[in-house]
Amino acid sequence: MRLFAYLFLLLFPVSLFAQVFGGNPPSLKWHQINTDTVRVIFPAGLEKEGRRVANIVNYLDANTRGSIGTRRMKVNIVLQNQTLESNGYVALGPFRSEFYLTPPPNPDLGSLKWEEQLSIHEYRHVLQNSNFDQGASKVVSYVFGQMGLAAATSIAVPNWFWEGDAVTMETALSNQGRGRLPSFFDGFRALSLEKRNYSFMKVRNGSYVDYTPNHYPLGYLMSMYGREHYGRMFWKDITTDAVRYRGLFYPMSRSLKKHTGKNVVGFYHNMLNEYASQWNTYAKDSAVPGAPLMSAPRTVTDYKYIYTVRPGQWIVYKSSYKKVPGFYLIDSTGGQALLTRPGIQFDDYFGYKNGRLVWTEARYDPRWGWKDYSVIKLYDRETGKKKTLTRGTRYFSPDISADGKKIIAAYTLSSQAFGLQLLDANDGKVIATLPNPQNWYYTYPKFSADEQSVISAVRNSNGEMAMIKQSLSSGEAELLTPFSFNMLSIPNVQHDTIYYTASYKDVDNIYALTLADKQIHQVTNHDNGVLHATIEDRGVVFSGFTSRGYQLYTDSISWKPVDASVNYHSSWLRPDFQEGGNILSTVPDKDYTITKYRKSTKLINLHSWLPTFDDPDYSLTIYGDNILNTASTSLGYTYNRNEGSSAITGNFIYGALFPYLQAGATYTFNRSDLYANRGRLYWNEMDVHGGITIPLNLSEGMYSRSISFASTYHYLERYPQGNFKFLHPSLQYIGNSFVFYNARIKATQNLFTHFGQYLVLSYNHSLDDLFAEQFYGKFDLYLPGLSQNHNLILQAAFQQRDTMRNYSFSDNFAYARGYNTPYYKWVYKLGVNYHFPIAYPDWGFGQMLYLMRVRANLFYDYSKSYNYLNNSHSQFTSAGTEVFFDTKIGNVLPFSFGFRYSRLFDKDPADNAKDRFTFIIPLQQLFNY
Fold first, then answer.
1. How far apart (Å, rounded) are the C-alpha atoms in residues 348 and 360?
2. By three-state DSSP, how is residue 776 classified?
3. Contact 623/64 with Cβ under 8 angstroms?
């Protein structure tokens, strides 16, 4: 039985939205703080974090509504502490937010205390949702519920505004925020410096061949440009017009035109021209770019984290739109040799010394989706072997000693305690845990030159960063730079000097800190963001951002003194938001009452009513989910086009235990089937069912891997419609299924994984004297094609059903393309598919349809069936092509459609057709985002 509530994801205004059903173990106990504004739900032991979030949210609600509106909806916020992902989202259906509490190990999102930054950013989404529930969008919410409102407002208000406005507020209401981070603008600055003038549609929709900045910096720049030119309340009026659909198509653009004289395209170009002039002026007057180490490849490629092996030879982390990431040995002649590839990661950073590489990879609890780990991997160039040093750990940013015997790594616990641990590089055992009384958050620790200390950037509870030196023997920490809101990243220790990336000026560059006098000097003065560098006798080699990805540059070392207490940022990195400034130091510390949160709270929580188009089934379903996402309810009506039948269904799934528990009932009107000598017979049918599902996540290394077992008991009662009777109108049966999925990670342009398997087995069998059974099996094998972005997919399927025809089970078999369904006892099919891209147009029209990619599939199907009535075999062979168009509709909805031409080499059982032309228009895609 399908898990109805989780077959779709609507387009939500979220931060990398992802829901996990039944993801926490039953042993996790939940507490809550419940006010008239927010209910904060958190695991026991996180009372401090729960109170802080509640205090910030209540303060935001009372004091920061002006620029978005006065409407209010109470929200549930769930704090998740078991995962190592750093994220958060707000969603409708049901209305709630989830904070993933592990701080980001890299500097991309800033250094603010993570639950505080999430509170400001995500609560802005709460206020957006609250105030967008008006006009035509509100009417849609009456008809379709919360998910209908989400769809209506997400179409009316583009994702760049949702996120740009939230980034604006996280910057306005704190001392940092992404709007003050130079690296946040590297993408747009690269396009500007390289004079790549992409259309607005290309920037909005992205590209498979060219780098385009995402909607976060786009939205922030648009948001700030609007505020600076038209006032703090400007976007409130624009979005009000949009969600009320004052102008049916592109209401946001129409409102911009009304208020500014420019539609969204003109507004974007005006914004970009203004900011680009500032970036270009700074690059011209203040920057001295490095010299490229090698010519940039045609495909967008990142060369990140560079380490010197010997003069003219380096090890780098390399990834591209065509190839999955790997660690490469490169040299000054252009040679590149793959050493090994990392697996799935939370952070792509790695450390290197004397032929040994260390990094972290993600591991997952097989059953509990919120529970994951980060283990340390080691690769030895001399032996060519890699091994896993730790298990069940939560490490980031490891570094290895020169002799290869010790590793230092940052750790984070689910209790929100952070620190450093010294590990044995042979077996991964903990040698020492360094004291951390301030609970600093460590990033990128490195051994000192004498390896008696650790050099690391740290973040304090105020969200400020500093560079420290901490003794491995005594644990005593020495402050090397003052704490500030400048981002500090990846130190490189060279004798008595520490080189590191910092955001002291308008562009991230490499700086040097001398330990003797603690003076800071600027080393590189590149015109766009620098990520990491290696220091050599002849100069510095560093990774800098371009429109083709992170590329490698060389430069001489010239030191210029820098005063870390001075703010060197230009005015565009210090805008006046008129929102009252930093609130984090003024939010009151109220001692809210904490009570237990029962997991059974509102298990049946109906919130949305949505259609589903899954030909031949067309449904209208009411969905319900509880806040902890452990219970799902669906009530609906389904029409089956093949049979002309109608069904009323009700299902409930409970996912808080090891197996999912499921129960439900379906009453179907006008079911039908063809019977020998009787023609088509009709009946009504009641199906009451219950069962279990065990979903397991076995992902590891480079493979996403899952197994699912399900077993469902069904009791059926059939009611004849016409002049016939069933000899046995009732039936009991067990439906069992097994699904195995295994796929190697793929690159951006890869159509499918280069190596993967998908196996489905199902067996239905009656339990009483009335015999009925059906077996179905399908296996898909994914292989690489002749070119990097080509795929060969081999398919095999088999289905057998009993000949007594006492009951007809659901038919999931995919028949030979072009043919109608034959009559059979058993049928099998073998298929060969060759998929390849044809073109990447990156072209659209009227903000209506944007064409990103055209791809094709050449197929050959061979099928054979056995008809027990006349003891005959039938053969079905076809070949042809499918052409697909990967598009974006309205700059919002990904949508792929196409057509299929089938040439039939054998007689069709229903007609004598030799050619079939079919349009492939999967309407359900429009409801899956």
1. 8
2. strand
3. no
Instruction: Identify the pLDDT of residue 14.
Output: 34
In the structure encoding, which two tokens stand for residue 613, read together? 């188009």
User: Residues 656, 662, 664, CA angle at the centre, nearest 5°?
Assistant: 145
d(C-alpha 897, C-alpha 240), whole Å: 33
Q: Determine phi and psi for 228, rounding to 5 degrees.
A: -70, -30
DSSP code of 550? Answer: E
Q: Could you give the CA distance from residue 657 to residue 741 in angstroms, rounded to a whole number?
A: 23
Q: Do 535 and 492 meet the contact criterion of CB atoms below 8 Å apart?
A: yes
Are the C-beta atoms of residues 754 and 765 closer than 8 Å to each other? no
- Each residue's pLDDT tens digit, 381-406: 999 999 999 999 999 999 999 999 99
Whole-angstrom Cα distance, residue 505 to residue 566?
A: 10
User: Averaged over 550-558, what is the pLDDT?
Assistant: 95
DSSP type of residue 108: G
CA triple 288-551-744, angle to 5 deg: 160
Core vs surface per residue 37-47: b (16+ CB within 10 A) or e = bbbbbbbeebe
DSSP state of 486: S
Query: Which candidate, 819, 648, 822, places its Cα nearest to that of 811?
Result: 822
pLDDT in tens, 201-242: 999 999 999 999 999 999 999 999 999 999 999 999 999 999
Whole-angstrom Cα Rg for the chain: 30
User: What pLDDT is stored for residue 241 in this prediction?
Assistant: 97
User: CB within 8 A of 612, min separation 6: which ones?
Assistant: 7, 8, 618, 619, 620, 621, 924, 927
Long-range Cβ contact pairs of 512-518 (< 8 A, separation 24 or more): 512/559, 513/467, 513/480, 513/481, 515/469, 515/480, 518/480, 518/481
**Closest residue by Cα to residue 365 from 654, 27, 116:** 27
Measure CA 595 to chain center: 33
Inter-residue contact 851 to 844 (CB < 8 Å): yes
Which residue in 390, 268, 274, 370 sits closest to 28, CA to CA? 370
The pLDDT score that the predictor gives to residue 10 is 28
Q: What is the DSSP letter of 574?
A: S
Closest CA to 402 of 448, 433, 360, 442: 448
CA 120 to chain centre: 21
Q: Other CB atoms closer than 10 Å to residue 384's CB: what's the count?
A: 9
Distance CA 693, CA 658 (A): 9
pLDDT given at position 870: 84
Q: Which of 827, 830, 747, 757 is nearest to 795 (CA)?
A: 830
Local structure of residue 195 (DSSP, 8 states):
T
* Secondary structure letter of residue 183 according to DSSP: G
Q: Among 238, 239, 223, 14, which residue's Cα sits nearest to residue 132? A: 239
- How many helices (H) and strands (E) are present in the chain, helices listed first? 10, 48
| pLDDT at residue 910 in the model | 82
Give the contacts of 474 (CB within 8 A, at least 6 positions apart).
none
- pLDDT of the residue at 677: 67
Q: Which residues contact 511 (CB under 8 A, 6 or more apart)?
A: 499, 500, 501, 502, 504, 520, 521, 522, 523, 562
CA 150 to chain centre: 19
Find the mean pLDDT for residues 700-721: 96
* 761-798 per-position pLDDT tens digit: 999 999 988 899 999 999 999 999 999 999 999 999 99
Q: Which two tokens stand for residue 335?
A: 């040679």
Q: What is the three-class DSSP state of 204?
A: helix
Tokens of 87: 């994220």
Mean pLDDT of the chain: 94
Q: Note whether 900 and 920 are within 8 A (CB).
A: yes
* Opening angle at CA 136, ends 134 and 138, nearest 5: 45
**Are the C-beta atoms of residues 596 and 73 closer than 8 Å to each other?**
no
